[in-house]
C-alpha cells in the first residue's frame, strides 16, 4: 500500500477485506462445503448476522474516532469483512427460502454481486469524490467552497475568499455539487491512515 497517500490506504484497508471475504465465502460455500452452517441453540445463524456483529462495532469505532492508527486500520478491515458477510446474504435471504441449496442459486449470486458491486462503487465514489472536493475548495474561492474547506456540512467562507465576481456563482454551484457527494466522515476518521 502507498504510505504517502492516507486516503488510499484507508480505501484499500476497507476494500480489500471486503472483496477478499466475499470471494472466500462464496468460493468455500460453492466449491467446498455448501452445507456449512453455524447453529446456535438449534438456530441456523446466517453469516449476515455474524457480519452485522463484526461491522457494527467497527463502524462505531470509526464514528467516534479510534485514537490509534492501528485501531483505525483494524476497524476499517473489520468493517470490510463484516460488510461483505452482510451484503453476501441480503438478497439471498429476501428472495429465496433461505436454504443451503438456495444460496447456490444464480439469483443469490447475482444479488450478492450487485450489492457488493454497489458497495465498491460507493467506496470508490467517496474516495475520488473527496479528492475532487478538496480540489474544488482549492480552485474555487467562494462562500460555498467552505463546505469542503471547513471539513463539514456547515457553510462558511473559503480561505482567501474576497468577493463574488460575475460567473463565480456558477463555480460556487459546481463546488457545492462536488462537495455534496462527500460524506461527513470522509474528512474524519476514514481519511486518516
Could you give the distance between the termini? 11 Å
**Helix and strand succession?**
HEEHHHHHH
Biggest sheet layout: 2 strands, antiparallel
Which structural class do you get from the secondary structure elements?
mainly alpha
Helix content: 55-70%
Shape: globular
Strand order of the largest sheet: 1-2
What is the strand content?
Answer: under 5%
Low-confidence stretches: 135-167, 176-193
- Count of individual beta strands: 2
Q: What gyration radius follows from the Cα positions, in whole Å?
A: 21 Å
Averaging pLDDT over every residue, what do you get? 77
Helix count from the secondary structure assignment: 7
Number of domains: 1
Question: How would the blueprint of this fold be written?
Answer:
Layout: H1 6-32, E1 39-40, E2 43-44, H2 47-64, H3 69-95, H4 100-103, H5 106-139, H6 146-149, H7 168-180
Please give a structural write-up.
The chain has a two-stranded antiparallel sheet. It is mainly α. 66% of the residues lie in helices and 2% in strands. It is built from seven helices and two strands, in the order αββαααααα. The protein has helices spanning 6-32, 47-64, 69-95, 100-103, 106-139, 146-149, 168-180, and strands at 39-40, 43-44.
Amino acid at each position: 500500500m502507498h504510505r504517502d497517500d492516507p486516503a488510499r490506504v484507508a480505501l484499500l484497508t476497507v476494500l480489500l477485506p471486503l472483496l477478499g471475504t466475499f470471494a472466500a465465502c462464496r468460493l468455500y460455500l460453492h466449491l467446498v462445503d455448501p452445507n456449512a452452517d453455524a447453529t446456535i441453540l438449534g438456530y441456523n445463524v446466517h453469516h449476515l448476522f455474524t457480519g452485522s456483529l463484526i461491522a457494527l462495532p467497527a463502524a462505531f469505532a470509526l464514528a467516534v474516532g479510534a485514537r490509534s492508527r492501528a485501531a483505525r486500520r483494524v476497524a476499517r478491515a473489520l468493517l470490510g469483512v463484516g460488510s461483505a458477510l452482510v451484503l453476501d446474504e441480503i438478497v439471498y435471504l429476501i428472495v429465496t427460502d433461505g436454504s443451503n441449496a438456495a444460496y447456490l442459486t444464480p439469483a443469490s449470486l447475482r444479488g450478492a454481486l450487485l450489492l457488493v458491486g454497489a458497495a465498491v462503487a460507493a467506496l470508490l465514489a467517496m474516495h475520488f469524490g473527496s479528492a475532487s472536493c478538496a480540489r474544488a475548495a482549492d480552485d474555487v474561492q467562494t462562500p460555498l467552497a467552505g463546505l469542503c474547506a471547513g471539513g463539514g456540512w456547515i457553510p462558511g467562507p473559503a480561505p482567501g475568499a474576497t468577493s463574488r465576481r460575475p460567473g463565480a456563482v456558477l463555480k460556487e454551484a459546481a463546488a457545492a455539487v462536488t462537495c455534496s457527494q462527500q460524506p461527513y466522515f470522509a474528512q474524519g476518521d476514514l481519511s486518516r491512515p
